[in-house]
Please model this.
Amino acid sequence: MRANVPKQGSGVNQAGMMKQIQRMQEEMEKKQQEIQETEYTASSGGGAIEVAVSGAHEIKSIKIQPEVVDPEDVEMLEDMLMAALNEAERKASEAMEKAMDSATNGMSVPGLGGLF
Model:
């Protein structure tokens, strides 16, 4: 049985591969910046609470409709707020994951995972 070993001069162009990896890394950084600057909103309680977070996972705004503020039921307000925040965070994380998959064409590139 013979091993299929590429001969020198016939195979992968290392300089070309490095340029391609560099372009991929630049694209990933660009997409990461775009995602971080985008706001993701989510609501709960039928729109009673709305939150916005950035792609960098910073809370940008919280809007609460006055009719849901019931001093007798603070737990419901807390639950709705948590649900909206978690959904907005999920949207931001999902957008980042999709952008990175797009930038790498779905490839798992060792060493580039720390970018996001």
In short: The chain is about 45% helix and 15% strand. Helices lie at 14-37, 74-103.
